[in-house]
Amino acid sequence: MFKSVTIKDIAKALGVSTSTVSRALNGSYEIGTETKKLVLEYAEKINYRPNPIALSLKEQKSHSIGVVVCEVANDYFSQAINGIESIAYNRGYHVIITQTHESFDRETANVKHLLSRHVDGLLVSLSAQTTDTLQYQDLLEKGFPIVFFDRAAPGLNTHKVIANNFKGAFDATEALIKAGFAKIAHLTNSKNLLISLERLEGYKAALHEYGIEFNPAFVKHCDHGGMIQGEVELALKELLSMDVPPQAIFSGSDRLTISSISILKKMGIKIPQDVALAGFTNSDVVQLFDPPLTVVRQPAFQIGQMATEMLIKTIESKWPVYEFNTEKVDVELIVRSSSQKN
């Protein structure tokens, strides 16, 4: 069984006190040069490493950050996590990642688990099922650091980093309109999510701008965000079996966009000949698809970095933080042939 070496072990081996060993390891000027050299050389020889749990108990900090996302396999979140880690590890923090799989119960359990691990703060992107944010409200009232990214809770007073969802949806819908499509459907996530509402508003604003009447029947909500293929397949079948079906589809999330491509192909629907497609996705392979896909791309890596910087600044603040910012980051529309008329 593995047994780590402690300061007591070093002190016993060298015949000095534990406080002398501790001071030597911490570079204290109170220890003589020879003693310090003796302790450091012995510690190196036996490959001594400080116990992070003991350190965290002493400092009341674990130097770890908890992350709550829907799924790591999602291209957006995998890139955001890379951004989170790039900042956290350079600042001496470990990252503990949890997945909700769009479940409120799983999200609640994940937060409780992360708190039991004594994380110093949380980076949270809400699940599609989450409408009750009381657990976060309670933590914030106690001064616990939380930063929301991507899927933020609108009523909570804390730092948030979000994409410009309205503009991204407007630009994608406008691109479809300019390509000659007037009947445009919108496939989107749960109504519970603020990003869904913002992207729906961007879609509606673009229709209004070009004098196209909004048709509520053209909007389909997928409450599991594309994680259940059958849900997306049903939504697409309902849209395409309408008496007057849409000529184009704007999909409002990474998972929905990727799912739509494979389902439409399985249904024998050609893109863009039978229906054009544009959507939010951070997948790097969509430009290789046949046809290459028109996408709204979010700076996920940058969003992860910004959220982590905000969180660590809050964690390390010597004074309670009462002023919070919502950072809105621009998105990029990349037009390819999936949204073009032949």
From TrEMBL:
The keyword tRNA processing does not apply. GO terms for molecular function: DNA-binding transcription factor activity; transcription cis-regulatory region binding. Residues 6-49 form the HTH cro/C1-type domain. Pfam families: LacI (PF00356), Peripla_BP_1 (PF00532). Signal peptide: none annotated. Residues 5-59 form the HTH lacI-type domain. It comes from the Bacteria. Keywords: DNA-binding, Transcription, Transcription regulation. InterPro entries: Cro/C1-type_HTH, HTH_LacI, Lambda_DNA-bd_dom_sf, Peripla_BP/Lac1_sug-bd_dom, Peripla_BP_I. This is LacI family transcriptional regulator. It comes from Mucilaginibacter oryzae.
